[in-house]
Amino acid sequence: EAFEASRVITKTVTNQKISSDFAGAKYGDTVYVKRPHDYIAVETAGGDISATTPNDIISGVAPAVAQNYITVEIPWTNREEALFLNDLKTIVAPAAERACLTLESNLITYMGKNAGMHRGTVGNAVSTWTAVADTYALASSIGVPESGNFYAAMNPFAISGLANATNGLQSGSDSLVDTAWKKAQISRDFAGVQAFSARTLKGMQVGADGSKSGLTIKTTPDQTYVTHKDTMQQTIVLTGFTASLANAVRAGDTIKVTQSGKYRTNIKTREIAYDNSGALPIYLKVLTGGNATAGGDVTVVVSNAAIYEASGQYNNISAALAAADTIQLLGTANAMVQPSLMYHEKAFGVGYVDLPKLAGWESSIIQMGDGIVVRVTKYSDARANTQKMRFDILPVFATYNPMFAGTFYGV
């Protein structure tokens, strides 16, 4: 009950149990989940398609990678059990809360790194409902599914920043249980967004060459779907940075393509996506940054790979990226910032491995309603006259579509 009551982030993503058929020695640390196929439609005057190119069936998979074990161990002596542990449920509750907090902290860090979209001005606090509504507007413009929930997770101080406009928005929960999720909600439905505060959001430091002008793409990157279909991550060489500068680009940075004529497209219609300022720029989230070379180059790995092919079947940008295209690293150099997180419930998933019981001890498996699996084991040291209990969770994180999620700041 204490674990369930502490959950916030894990209530907003797809949770599932990973059975022994899809874990262990048969598959190793990575389980692959099939990505949906996509196609294009052609238009002809008379229905003759003999001169057109048919769609290809390209099977992509999303890797779901096993994380570290999350374990909380509690020891106590036989004397303590006899004299003090008359309410073990209450004593153990903080262990469940700690396990949940660790799980959700790791998950939201993973989500923030792999979220592919961007909105707002890096470093600006979310203080208006315009910034919150802006997240759903972006999602709609690029074709994120209308079905399912769309969330905005913000720093707890966003509650005070939005307080003047929050009155009456929070309809609360019908549950009488005062859970962390209920407390975290700011609005259950504002402009298509379920807004809540998240104590587990992570801060980051902007790259040491943040906002530097004169940056370009050095060599034309691979933009084929076949290359990126299993990771949706892309390697790009950038140039123009301060020579030999350490940490010129850091993980978590956002790259904006400023080259004219190259924009983000709607993943359903393939048409250029627009916001209230015009055509939507191409943003790329840095997964791996690095130091600048003596020539000012940095090779980065980004999430939400830019795809452009002649067939257009999986395109998500309006024109191919090319060498010498101008780009911008967003944010003030070396500034400490904490991005908020926007995402559709189908952007990420968490699996929980059905752990084998430990032989020779009192070991049991607890499965919650939405797939979360916790192994509880009681054991002892007869010579030391001590009892021990351990709680174990082995989560598996997956990114189903980085375009369904992003980081955002105040407008």
Brief characterization of the structure:
This protein has 411 residues and is of the alpha+beta class. Helices cover 17% and strands 31% of the residues. The two termini are 39 Å apart.
The spatial strand order of the largest sheet comes to 5-25-19-6-8-7
Query: Which ranges are low-confidence, i.e. pLDDT below 50, for 5 or more consecutive residues?
Result: 20-27, 168-177
The whole-number mean of residue pLDDT values reads 83
The portion of residues assigned to helices is: 10-25%
Could you say which overall geometry the principal axes of the C-alpha atoms support?
A: globular
If helices are DSSP runs of H or I spanning 4 or more residues, what is the number of helices? 8
Q: Largest sheet, described in full?
A: 6 strands, mixed
Q: What amount of the residues lies in strands?
A: 25-35%
Count of individual beta strands:
25
What structural class results from the helix and strand content?
A: alpha+beta
As a whole number of angstroms, the C-alpha radius of gyration is: 24 Å
How many angstroms separate the termini? 39 Å
Summarize this structure as a short list of keywords or feature phrases.
17% helix, 25 strands, alpha+beta, 6-stranded mixed sheet, 411 residues, single chain
